[in-house]
Structure formats: C-alpha cells, structure tokens
C-alpha cells in the first residue's frame, strides 16, 4: 500500500488547524512522504506541522485526520530515519503538550475516559444544569439543548485528545519493532522509546521491549532513555491512588540494580536516579547523583540537550529533557533539609562558587525551601534562633554578588536584599562560610541519612523536548470583543494556546485608545524629568504599599567613567532604570504618592484614567482565558474586581554602551512577573526579550506599534496548575549610537507595565479543567505579599 492511499478521500475543507482551514495538510503530507524531500523542504514541512498541530497545545480536527497518514509514512520503507524520528516527535507532542520526564506530565487517560463516559450517562446534562444553576427545576428542551452544546464544546479538547491518543496507540507494535531494527539510527531508537513512555495502559506489551533495550542496546543514551521511559510507564496516573507500591516492581528492581552496576556510564546512573526519584524510592546515593548534576556545570555536560541544541537535527540527545539540570532539580525541590542537610549545603556552595548552571534566582529559591523544610516562615525568626543549617545557607547568600532579581525570594523569607543589611542580619562582620559537612558531592555525602523522596508538585517551567519554535503571536482582540460567537471562541483558544506555549502575546485592537496610551507616555516622560529632589519626596517607602518613586539603577551609572567606579556600581546596581509605582487610588490604608499638580499637571488624572483602562482590558482578557480554559466566561469576575493592581512607569536612561557590555548586564535582568498577567506598553526603542522555554534562548519581543504585550505571571501559572506559562523575560540594550571614537550610547527607553492581581483574599487553588492539583491552595495575599513586598527595597 502506498503510504498516502486515501489522502484524497478525506474532505480537508471541513477540517481545521491552528491557522485556519486544513487545505494545506494533504500537500504537506505528500511532501513529507516523498523520498526525495530536501533538507530545507523537510525543515519547512516540519515547522508547519509543528505550528499547526502542537504549537498551541490545542488539538485540531486535522490533527486527528492526519495521524493515520503519519503512521503510514512511519511504516513506509522509503522513509528516512530522520523523518521517522520527527514524526514520532510530532505525534507525542500532539497528545502530551509538555512531554518531560515527570509523572505529572502524563496525560491522565483514565480520567479523560471517565469524563467522556460521564457525559454519555443518562440525564447527565439535566443534572449538570441543575447543579450549575443551583436549582431543582428541570431545564426546558431549549435550555437543555443549549447546555448540552455548551458541555460538548467545553469538552471538545478532551474528545480530540482521547481520540488522538487511541489513534497513536495503534502504532505501538511498530514503535517496539524499531527498537531492534538494525536499520534504525540511535536517534530513532531513542525517539521510539520516548514515544512508548506515554502509554501506561499498554505497559505489559511495552515493558519486555524496553527491558531488551537495557540488556542489548550499546548506545548509553538510548539505554538511559529506556530507564526514564520505564519509570514513567509505571508511575501512577494522577487519578489513581498513589499508594500504588513502586518499590518492589520489576522496573524499580531493574533501575536499582543498574544504578549500582560496575562501570555503568554516568548518563545511565543519572537516569536511574531520576527514575527512582519518580517512584518515590530514591535513597541517599540516588539523591546525591541528582545533586551532582545541579551543582556541577561540567557533569554530563556533553549529554545535556541544552548544550547541543540542533533544530531538527539527527543529533543524539535525550528526547525527554530539554535540560538535565532542570530534570534533576525537580525531585530535589521536594526534599526536606532536616532529612537531607547535605542537599541545601551543596546547593549553597554551588551558588557561591557559581558552579551550577541554574540561575541564582531558582537556586536560592530551592536552597531556602529545602533549608526551611518546604515551609516559608511567615516571619523570619532572629538569626540566633535558626538552625545551623539555615544559618549557613543564609551566610552563603551574603556572598552572592548579584542579588537583584533574587530580591523577591529573599523578601518571601523576610530577609533584607541589600547585601549590607543581609550581612547585618547574619551578625557576622567578617563573613566566613563554613560548610560544616564538607560537602563534596562528587565523593558522596558525609552523613548517612536514609530516606526516600517523593516527587510532588509539577514542573515550574516547561521541559518540552524537541524542536519547538517560539512565537509571540499577534492576536486581534476585536474578534473577541465584537466578532461572531465562533470568532470569539477561536480568539479565546488562540490566546490560551499562546499562553500555554510561550506565555506571551501581542494584542492589537485592544480597545484602549491610542490617545490614552500616548498621554500616559507623555505624562510619564514629564514626571521622570522632574528634579531628583521632587521625585525623592515621593519615595517608595513600604513594601505593603508598593507605591511611589523608585530609583534603582541611578543615573550616576551613566556618568561614571572610572573603571573602579563602574565595577562598584555594577555590583550594586546592575539594573539601570527608575520607576514610579501606582496602586488603586481608593485604598484607605495605602495612599498613592502623587506629585503636586503644579509640578506635574494632569499626571494624576491621566494615570488614574489609564489605570482604569488597563483594569477593564485585563478583565476582558481574563474572560478570554476563562473561555479558552472551558470555564464560564465570567469565572474570574468576582475574583479580580478589587483592582489590587500595580501600574508601573519605567524609564531607562541613556547609558554608555560599555556599561551594558559586561556579562549579565541588562536594563532589566531575566525575571518572571508575579501576578496573574502583565499588560506591557513599550516605546519604539526595543530591548524586551522573552525566553524560549524549550531552548533557553531569549527571543526579542520587538515593539509593534498599536499593540500591547501581554504575558502570564507566576500566580496565574500556579492558579492554572502550570497549564499557562509564566515566561522569563528581560530588557537588554538595543544597538548603541557612537558618541565619539571610543564610546557609544544606548537610547533611553520608556515603558509602562500594568501588573494585574486577583483580590487579596481570593484563594488561589487549582482552576477547574487544569488537571490534578500540583500546589496547595494559598490566598493571593499569602502568595503575593511576600513577593510584592519584594519589588524594591
Ligand atoms: O520595560 C519593560 O519592557 C519590561 C519591564 C518588566 O518586565 C517589568 O518591570 O517586570
Ligand atoms: Fe516583567
């Protein structure tokens, strides 16, 4: 049979993908099946499919229709190894939006089947209607039908995912035969193993094939991939009771034995440790193995896909992980310092010696979390009341040069972020870091704590594998506000799709008049031109208020020319910017800090009106998010109406190029925002960049006139159970203009950010339709105040 028999029997005009009707799908499939496809053409075709099918993490009718043809091409003898690997990658991304080596990333097929089954049960629609409207009445026929349509629409994603899952599962025997097909490349074998990991219901059929890989495979990374796949296969689905014992399964026994095998390669030992951590049965030696990867940049360096990222290449790296370090970090996060004190100590040591490739921000967070046994005290006790472990960790923090973007974390723990203040807190004039346990991870810990770690919670940031392109889509919001019902749903899906994938969108036709934005920028510019003394009188004073003028970077930096002075300034003030923070104006406790009307005419009224415009737009975007998550459109309304937002005017002064050339220097270092979402208005200078979570690369979010950049914040990521992504971003300097033979100056930049928050008393517990909760519920206040207090000190 030709692989594409039947392609023309499908009416592709009736089907759609992310970019509209699926008319181009048959042509692309033909090109993919052609044995003479060129490398460039293949790259194009794959990128198209990637975008259409999995870019938005949403399934489309054409995805389903294309699956049998993908399987046929996979089977065809004329298909190259490379195309086969790529097909496997596409197929798995269609059913597992974020395939990473974590049980939490599995699709919960059992729950999916249950949900769909329930919809068909007698009188389900009526019962659901009665619950929804809290009534004992019976819906009339029109109401019933409308409710049923609505339910079906809400479950469309579930239907498609389950059908896609079943369609892709048909290929399992084929994926298994690839494992000992002598013509299959190592990369293809690794991809086939990766594909097999997502079908726990078929574990009986798959396990023997993967055990064969452990016995016979020669290439270490392929064997290592099998270790991870096996542990994922046996990890319980979220809806199953986690009491399923995994310490005495054939798989766990295999991994335990392999870990200890003489002469086994590091990458296999590491993968066994990861697998045992999933199973909740990691012992100290396994934890140490994971710790080693986090604290030693060079360990397994050559195996880390992050260091050898080739798009669509046949390079042999882990199909599962984007970064081995991040994979290792995840189980470590669940450890308690009282059980395993060597873990936070080793992490603190890595922080000070900069021997980890994890950002200080994340490393501090994890180190502190572990040192405080997973709890963040509501009030930091006096230093002398802390445990020795906690003292050592905090003393280590004093040694870190750049704490700028770690302020949020330090404040969360009630610690001052100024190095001087922090030093004072530790009461040691001369800071000597003592690592009392002489933590040398390489040679194993000095203490012998026995215990296991349980993998809890989810993935902080995506570890999606494979070649995923990063787009910040431009979305026409008028289609949501004024379009047909269908337009509205599609726009909501696009927004949610993009928030799942990149966490960033551009919004055009957003409804805030251009004149309002222009006025806000004009008044902001006038404000920052005021003399320093005038601005200083409005100084930001209290973190709970989070209102007022903040001068962080200091204009001094731009004038400094003496090398020693520059170095000193760099150490203390890497971010060169000043800001003005404005909150809701009717707060009885925390008044805004307004300049006198005579100093800044119309500043207050302009900003208050802009605050309101932004609040209104943010409620509309949240309506779109609600729809896109298949919630009631008004779901968020009563959770956000108190307007606990923060309007921030930003001004980045012109700066000599040399000052921004140093390593890590940026106008604003990489960070994520902490609220639900941020509306960002920027001038035409540029410099904003968002991090592609798949590759770690920063991608410019260049200014597009008339649009607003909207990004998801940490609180929304947590609220949505990691379904929506809070993406790291930063501001770098655009090209500089030479001012003389030796020096160049970068233009000044203005931006306005509107940070949106829920009501402070709102409980943030996993939203409906977002999977099994990974995080305990917290109130907004509990979550944010620690971070809000931290904005600047
Ligand atoms: O100035 C910008 O464009 C971004 C500022 C930002 O990301 C922030 O203040 O959180
Ligand atoms: Fe930001």
TrEMBL record:
It comes from the Eukaryota. Gene3D superfamilies: B-lactam Antibiotic, Isopenicillin N Synthase, Chain, Leucine-rich Repeat Variant. It holds the Pfam family DIOX_N. Transmembrane segments: none annotated. Signal peptide: none annotated. Residues 643-758 form the Fe2OG dioxygenase domain. InterPro entries: ARM-like (IPR011989), ARM-type_fold (IPR016024), DIOX_N (IPR026992), IPNS-like_FE2OG_OXY (IPR044861), IPNS-like_sf (IPR027443), Iron_ascorbate_oxido_reductase (IPR050231), Oxoglu/Fe-dep_dioxygenase_dom (IPR005123). PANTHER family: 2-OXOGLUTARATE (2OG) AND FE(II)-DEPENDENT OXYGENASE SUPERFAMILY PROTEIN-RELATED. This is 2OG-Fe oxygenase family.
């Amino acid at each position: 049979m030709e692989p594409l028999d039947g392609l023309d029997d499908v009416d592709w005009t009736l089907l759609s993908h992310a970019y509209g009707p699926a008319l181009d799908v048959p042509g692309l499939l033909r090109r993919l099946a052609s044995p003479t496809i060129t490398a460039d053409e293949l790259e194009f075709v794959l990128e198209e499919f990637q975008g259409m099918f999995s870019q938005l993490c949403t399934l489309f009718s054409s995805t389903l229709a294309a699956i049998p043809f993908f399987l046929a091409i996979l089977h065809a003898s004329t298909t190259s190894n490379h195309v086969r690997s790529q097909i496997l990658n596409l197929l798995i991304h269609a059913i597992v939006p974020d395939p990473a080596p974590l049980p939490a990333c599995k699709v919960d097929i059992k729950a999916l089947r249950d949900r769909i089954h329930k919809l068909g049960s007698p009188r389900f629609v009526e019962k659901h209607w009665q619950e929804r409207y809290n009534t004992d009445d019976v819906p009339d026929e029109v109401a019933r039908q409308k409710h049923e349509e609505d339910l079906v629409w809400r479950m469309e994603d579930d239907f498609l995912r389950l059908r896609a899952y079943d369609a892709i599962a048909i290929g399992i025997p084929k994926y298994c035969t690839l494992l000992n097909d002598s013509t299959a490349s190592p990369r293809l074998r690794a991809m086939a193993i990766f594909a097999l990991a997502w079908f726990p219901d078929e574990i009986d059929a798959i396990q023997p094939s993967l055990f064969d890989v452990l016995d016979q495979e020669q290439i270490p990374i392929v064997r290592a991939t099998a270790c991870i796949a096996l542990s994922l296969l046996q990890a319980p689905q979220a809806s199953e009771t986690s009491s399923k014992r995994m310490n005495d399964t054939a798989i766990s026994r295999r991994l335990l034995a392999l870990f200890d095998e003489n002469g086994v390669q590091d990458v296999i030992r590491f993968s066994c440790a990861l697998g045992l951590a999933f199973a909740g049965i990691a012992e100290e030696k396994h934890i140490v193995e994971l710790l080693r990867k986090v604290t030693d940049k060079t360990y397994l360096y050559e195996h880390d896909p992050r260091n050898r990222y080739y798009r669509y290449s046949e390079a042999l790296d882990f199909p599962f992980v984007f970064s081995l370090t991040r994979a290792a970090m995840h189980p470590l996060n669940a450890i308690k310092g009282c059980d395993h004190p060597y873990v936070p100590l080793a992490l603190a040591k890595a922080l000070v010696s900069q021997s980890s490739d994890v950002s200080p921000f994340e490393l501090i967070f994890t180190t502190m979390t572990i040192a405080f046994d997973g709890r963040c005290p509501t009030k930091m006790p006096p230093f002398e009341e802390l445990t020795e472990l906690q003292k050592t960790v905090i003393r280590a923090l004093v040694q870190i040069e750049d704490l700028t973007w770690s302020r949020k974390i330090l404040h969360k723990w009630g610690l001052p972020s100024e190095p001087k203040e922090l030093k004072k807190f530790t009461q040691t004039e001369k800071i000597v870091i003592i690592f009392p346990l002489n933590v040398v991870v390489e040679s194993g810990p000095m203490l012998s704590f026995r215990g296991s770690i349980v993998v809890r919670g989810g993935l902080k940031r995506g570890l999606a594998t494979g070649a995923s392109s990063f787009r910040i889509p431009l979305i026409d919001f008028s289609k949501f506000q004024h379009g047909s019902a269908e337009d509205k749903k599609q726009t909501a899906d696009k927004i949610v799709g993009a928030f799942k994938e990149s966490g960033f969108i551009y919004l055009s036709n957003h409804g805030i008049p251009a004149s309002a934005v222009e006025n806000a920028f004009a008044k902001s510019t006038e404000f920052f031109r005021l003399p320093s003394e005038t601005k200083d009188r409005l100084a930001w004073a209290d973190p709970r208020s989070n209102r007022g003028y903040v001068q962080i970077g200091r204009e001094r930096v731009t004038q400094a020319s003496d090398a020693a002075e520059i170095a000193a300034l760099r150490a203390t003030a890497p971010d060169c910017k000043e800001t003005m923070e404005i909150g809701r104006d009717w707060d009885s406790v925390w008044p805004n800090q307004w300049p006198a009307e005579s100093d800044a005419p119309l500043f207050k009224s302009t900003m208050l009106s802009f605050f309101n415009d932004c609040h209104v737009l943010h409620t509309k975007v949240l309506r779109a998010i609600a729809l896109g998550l298949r919630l009631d459109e008004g779901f968020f309304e009563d959770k956000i109406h108190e307007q606990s937002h923060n309007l921030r005017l930003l001004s980045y002064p012109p700066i000599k190029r040399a000052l921004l050339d140093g390593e890590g220097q940026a106008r604003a270092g990489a960070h994520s925002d902490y609220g639900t979402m941020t509306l960002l208005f920027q001038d035409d200078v540029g410099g904003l960049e968002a991090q592609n979570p798949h590759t770690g690369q920063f991608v410019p979010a260049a200014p597009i006139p008339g649009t607003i950049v909207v990004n998801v914040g940490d609180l929304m990521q947590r609220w949505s159970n990691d379904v929506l992504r809070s993406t790291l971003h930063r501001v770098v300097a655009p090209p500089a203009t030479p001012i003389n033979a030796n020096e160049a100056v970068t233009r000044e930049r203005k931006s306005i950010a509107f940070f949106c928050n829920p009501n402070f008393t709102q409980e943030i517990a996993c939203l409906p339709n977002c999977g099994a909760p990974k995080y305990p519920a917290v109130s907004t206040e509990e979550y944010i105040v620690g971070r809000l207090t931290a904005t600047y000190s």
